[in-house]
Amino acid sequence: MYSDVLIVGGGMAGSALGCALATSSLFSKITVIDTTPIPKAPENEVPDPRCVTLTPISQKFMRSIGTWNLIEEKRRAGFKEMKVWDYYGTGSMLFEDSYGWVLENKAITHANMTRLSQFPNVEILAPAKVKGFSVRTGEVEVELEDGQKLTTSLVVGADGKESKVRNDFKIGAWRSTYPHCGLVCTVKADNKVPTAYQRFLKTGPIALLPFWDDYYSIVWSLPPLEAERLKKIPPAQFIEELNKALHDPSIVSFPVSTQLDAPMIREITTDRFSFPYALQHASKFVDSRVALIGDAAHTIHPMAGQGYNLGVYDVINLAHDLCEAAKVGKDPGSLMSLENYATRSRLYNTLFAGFEQFILWNYTDFGLIHYWRNANFSLINNIPPLKSLFQAGANGTYYVPSHWSWVSEMPPEEIPF
Amino acid sequence: MLSTFRILRRLSTVDPSEKLIFASYKWWSSNDALHPYTDVRINFIKNCLGLSGPKPFANMKILDVGCGGGLITERLARLGGTVVGIDPTPEAIDVAQDHLPTHLKDKVQYRNCEVVDVEGTYDLVIASEVLEHVNSPDVFVKQVADKAIPGGSVILTTVNRTIESYLLAIYAAENVLGIVEPGTHSWDKFITIEEFKELCRNANLDPQELKGWFLDYLRFKAFEVDYERLGYMCRCIKLS
Ligand SMILES: Cc1cc2nc3c(=O)[nH]c(=O)nc-3n(C[C@H](O)[C@H](O)[C@H](O)COP(=O)(O)OP(=O)(O)OC[C@H]3O[C@@H](n4cnc5c(N)ncnc54)[C@H](O)[C@@H]3O)c2cc1C
Fold first, then answer.
1. How far is the CA of A118 from the centre of ligand 1 (A)?
2. Nearest to A28 among B35, B39, B55 (CB)
């Protein structure tokens, strides 16, 4: 059977791409393949700690493909500001307008998959496994483990950081490790407010993301051994260390003294999970007949909460170009249809990876660099145009086209609260 | 009179020296200006015919005269059309045939022949960038018009004979920018709009929408414009 586009990986990025292409109704058939079965609707009362923050652009994208309203309202927790501060000095940044949303990964995937199954011209094969690809003139033959054979003009690799598509198409990847891994869990706090917090500690950044009710999600980046230790200690001791990390006064007060107050954590409500981090970039994001999106193309440190959002920008850029190509009958798998996406994606991904590297380097912890870092923080905070540039960069406005080809009208802006 | 007309219609309009140029043309080279121009051509056709949606050319029988490497043919097939692509240059037909993806094979038929050799009539006949390459364009336009059903559309595109077209379409495109293979065009074969309309009317075609096009070289994107002193595209209706 022939599909215009065949997406390998129905995770958050792959399922979103499928929705955007299907929404355009410019394609005769789209296929999405995943090794895992279609996820069930989430029913948990306590939020799942595997979650992401969404930027305004990513949220607008979900509205443009009709998946935002498929998520139960309670599970779309918004925050209206972001507070970033430092363990060492006093430089702090308050991003009053940096709003966003915190959602469970599974809520996003479930909504996308539900939407996908509503389109008559979308074929979902899950669970199913790809055996191999063979490239022929103008198309790719895809063989599944069960012997089924499919053909397509374009294979999209949305199969995560260990991407089989990337490997099978012989695209290399450059990888380096971070000195951190991620420890995640959900907690309850006193006096919860819809603010996202991030504090840079000596061992790495810790983020506190507001969920529904009194819940916060914790994403604590720290050296692997330290993560292992924190995973094993009794809950009471963990809460104590957590509060210490968030509330211990900063070491020096220079140049001006401001101390941000984070909420007090009272209870840990889920298991603690740890995830390895890697900085990885595929050597090419596209080649003839193949495009990589999301974690298959690039992964970064989650400190800025951007990993998935960069995947959404990929989806927006690629879907837009593929729709424009489809309108004029262009081959979706030819390099001519894919190169623009690769150039754009490369740009914001390199930018973010570089920006994070810069911050990590700042935290290598020697001498006077603290003063410099704190001065930088204060500087960004105190120069409005610089700050808004910074915010626009973090909001994603610069990286995607202003109009998206799969909708005739762009969804209006929406702000939480 | 009628018999001369019949003979004319059997006449070959192929220029052998032109055939040589197209035998080695790199049709699918991604930096060829024909690709962004094809975006414009397809959009022009869709707009003139009032088509949109996923398979706008579904249920349409289309003839692409002088299809070359199949740039337009393949796209129309992808957009749902049933297309016959013909070209007098065998090498071009080979390129087109080799490039055709399997899933489009039952939508497309390529033939190495001239327009006079084609049987039957079509809902839509296209001869894009061919007029400026044939001998006796008057005969050619008549032969093309013959293949359209009454009331059907004939799309013709060509290059205007102006000083601008000399500078841009030949000198700059071939020698400076390298986006058209050298020797592809000769200026005296270009056709002015008055001459063009006359050719159409003599062939029982009613020229309607006429638009110019322009290539933004830096972004490598082509646009439809109201300036026709370079290349232009025209949709004609075949009168009964
Ligand atoms: C601790 C942590 C915290 C994070 N926090 C944030 C945050 O706050 N904000 C943010 O934006 N991002 C965050 N991220 C990053 C974010 O989770 C990822 O970028 C995102 O999940 C990538 O989505 P994806 O669809 O590209 O890949 P994945 O989510 O990995 O999905 C891949 C899919 O492909 C399927 N698959 C795999 N192999 C195959 C195969 N061979 N055949 C078929 N299917 C296959 C899998 O089953 C899966 O469904 C965080 C990451 C970590 C580790």
1. 23
2. B55
CB of B42 within 8 Å of a chain A CB? The answer is yes
Return the number of CB contacts < 8 Å for A and B. 53
pTM: 0.93
> Is A12 near ligand 1, meaning CB less than 6 Å away?
yes
- Using alpha carbons only, how large is chain A's radius of gyration in Å? 22
Global ipTM: 0.91
In whole angstroms, give the CA distance from residue B117 to residue B113. 6
A261 backbone φψ class: left, alpha, beta (φ>0; ψ -120 to 50): beta
Buried b or exposed e, range B155-182, using 16+ CB within 10 angstroms:
bbbbbbbbeebbebbbeebbeeeebbbe
The answer for residues whose C-beta is within 8 angstroms of residue B9's C-beta and 6 or more apart is B116, B139, B142, B143, B146
User: pLDDT of A20-73, one tens digit each?
Assistant: 999 999 999 999 999 999 999 999 999 999 999 999 999 999 999 999 999 999
For residue A101 the two structure tokens come to 């949303």
Q: Residue ranges per domain, chain B?
A: 4-159+192-214+221-238
Superfamily of domain B4-159+192-214+221-238: Vaccinia Virus protein VP39 (3.40.50.150)
Mutate which: A327, A334, A408, vs B, most B CBs within 10 A: A327
